[in-house]
Amino acid sequence: MPELPEVETVRRGLIPYVLGSTIQRAMVHRGFGRMIKDSSVKAFRETVEGTQIEELKRHGKYLIFRLSNGRSWIVHLRMTGAFLVSSGHHPRDRYERARIKITSPSYTPEVVLVFNDVRRFGTWECVPTEHETDRIPSGPDALAIHFTRDDLLGKLRSKDTSLKSALLDQAVVAGLGNIYVDEACFLAGIRPDRKTKNLSAQEVQRLYDAIGTTLNRALEQGGTSFRNYVNAFGIPGGALSHCQVYQRDGEYCRICDSTILKIKHAGRGTHYCPVCQD
Ligand SMILES: [Zn+2]
């Protein structure tokens, strides 16, 4: 599933095309109307067509297009959703669910945003911008300036759960999923199945630093492609080969040569080094 670095990579790819552009047509292909939450396809189209995209924001794993009519078009890519920037001549492939035609004074001819989604879990919705925060996770974005070590410490101390569960909880911090939780725990040297309330302030400091480092490194690599994530131009990210533990069970730890283990924890495959993490 795309996590913060993948969604941010998509956002950065879309920005030069969508900012200031006008949505001419929003076509959701027949049979895929369910991806639009709490609205019909017709109502969605009527809301977005003819509006300008004034901002493209991201919160955690959500993309938020702020429109000139005071609405926010909120997209969650879920497992396999992908936006591709293309020309109007882009042929429709079997996983295409929708396409948005946009025009802008800064380029000609029109650009098409193709929305592909193999697994069909991606969601779109349109809400008044003042209600945007009701629809996105309450936790701060993991790369936001207001996400602080003290904020993380307070939340972890107040929970009676494991570190892995806590970091997957988007009300604690938004943007992390299975890959980057495992990677951040490794970088911090803390086992993901530790109880959060037993973590020392120093450990939380290491964890906080590790979250930022892990996400920023992955962003530099254009995100992690596991299964079928691609950026806005159809190009996979290069961060998987840089993972230290994720999907490396049975392989040697690059730091200590021990064998990376995989356990089932918090309902998820969880990878860690038994020597580097305690
Ligand atoms: Zn190790």
Task: Give an overview of the whole structure.
With 278 residues, this protein is an alpha+beta fold. It folds into two domains: 4-135, N-terminal domain of MutM-like DNA repair proteins; 149-272, Orthogonal Bundle (Helicase, Ruva Protein, domain 3). The chain is 26% helix and 25% strand. The chain has seven helices and ten strands. A four-stranded antiparallel β-sheet has the order 1-6-7-5. The chain has a four-stranded antiparallel β-sheet with strand order 2-3-4-8. A two-stranded antiparallel ribbon has the order 9-10. β2 (53-59) and β3 (62-67) form a beta hairpin. The protein starts with a helix and ends in a 6-residue tail after the last strand. The model has no long low-confidence stretch (mean pLDDT 94). Zinc ion is lined by residues 253, 255-256, 258, 273, 275-276.
